[in-house]
Every structure is written in C-alpha cells, then in structure tokens.
Amino acid sequence: MTLTPDLKDIIQIVEHAGKSILLPHFQQQHEVQTKDDGSIVTQADLACQSYLQEKLHVLAPHISFLGEEMSNSEQIACLQSKASFWCVDPLDGTSNFATPMPMFAISIALIVDGKPILACIHDPIRHETFTAIHQQGAKLNGQNIVSPAEKTLKESVGFLDFKRLSPVLSTHFATQNIYRSQRNLGTCALEWAWLATGRAQFIIHGAEKLWDYAAGSLLAEEAGCVVRDFSGLQPFAKKTLSSSILAAHPSTYQDLKKHVSD
Fold it and tell me: Which stretches in the chain have pLDDT values below 70?
C-alpha cells in the first residue's frame, strides 16, 4: 500500500517551482532544442523537472518518478512496472513559454495501481492551483470546484486539437457544425483544469501524452466529467504513453462519442 503524501506539501513544491524557476525564465532568451517527436525543450523544462524530482523524492522516496523529459525507455519502464509513480510535466506548454505566450503550467499526478489518485496543476501566471484527490472532489486555490451546469453540445465551446486528429475526423469536426466553437490553448494541462472549472465543455485530442492528461483527467472526473479514449475505455487501461482522449460532462459526452472512433 502506498503512503500518500500530504497534498499541501505537493502544492508548496509546485508553487515554488512556478515562482522561482519558470517565471524568472519567462520572456527571456531560450536555447531551444528539438526532441525526436518534434516537440521542443528549454533549460526551464529541465531545471523545473530536476527540482520537482528532487523534492518529490525527499517527500516520498518510496514513489517512483516519470517525467516528460526522461528518455522514452525510462518512461516505459516506469509505466509498465507495478510501482506507484509521480507523473510529471514540468512545463506544459513549452512552445507557448518560449514564444513567449503566457499560457503554461506545471502538472503532477500520483499514479497508484495504474490510476491517478492525486493531482495538482499550477498556473504561475494567473496564480491558480487546481487540485484533486480521488473520490474527494476538485479544488481551485483551496475552494471546492462546483460542477458547472451542463450545456447541450450545440451550446458548447471545447478544446480541440485538429493537428492531432486523423484527416477524416479533423474534417468532420471542422465542417459539421457540431458545437458552438473550439479552442486550442497549447497547454493540455490548462485545458483540463479549465474543463473542470466549466470554462469549456469538452476536450477532444487525438494523441495526448500520459503526462498531459494524468493530473487533468482526475481533475475533470472529480468535477463530474466522463473521461474516455476514443474506444470508450479509461485512458489508463492500456498502459501506454499516449491516448486519444474524449472528455466532457455526461450528456455532452454521450453526444460527442457518436462522432469519434478509435
């Protein structure tokens, strides 16, 4: 049985990382490197991950660590082991950060028995910290997130990344007048957090990485959303590093799922 660290300690670590590491680097010149998958990494990503890994190990040395900036082989080994682990994106929205565009976040989830049980997403620009504990609800800056009133799909504004969808699905969602409007923030973590708080009504993403949705999916579920992959399974069921994601409040989800297939 994994001893769960105090959420207050996680919040303190994450907020300090945002204030002391990310914000001082924001709007500065960045040496940008391109990774094998085409995404970019800056010194801020690496410094923040190093800090988080160190502090989380001190806090809970019995829990393993899976970070975005680890090697693919290290990530897979951690994911496929039976150990509990932290799933961390030290800087979600690196392209925004390097542009510079003030839309990025730190995302941490604790995965136990293959599922997230604790989540923390911190937006250092807006001083917003979103948290969730399994079966204990979701909070924003310590205040309970009240599940927002549902809207019909036609009334809904959602987060949809056309680039990550197949050409067929992308064309379908772009041309069929299914929803009111769509956005893409360039940071999955904030999209999940904003879905949980009712700032949008759905998420459709064709290939989201584990560290992009680990914390956010728990936030969304604790706020009353349904989170599934395109085949209708919970995204953690397959133990893969990426998954096609569909998330929304129940009635909107039922309407949306008719439009996707895995």
Answer: 1-3, 261-262
Question: What does DSSP assign to residue 197?
Answer: T
CB 107 within 8 A of CB 131: no
What tokens does 136 get?
A: 């204990």
Q: Longest Cα pair distance anywhere in the chain, in angstroms? A: 51
Q: What pTM was computed for the model?
A: 0.96
Among candidates 167, 187, 174, which has minimal Cα distance to 101? 187
CATH, residue 211: 3.40.190.80
Any idea what DSSP says for residue 148?
Answer: P
Cα radius of gyration rounded to whole Å, the chain: 17
Q: In sequence order, what DSSP letters do the residues of 155-191 get, joined into one string? A: G-EEEE-GGGS-HHHHHHHHHS--SSEEE--S-HHHH
* Tokens standing for residue 24: 């001082």
Integer Cα distance of 86 and 76 in angstroms: 13
Domain that holds residue 56: 7-144
Statement to judge: residues 27 and 112 lie in one domain: yes
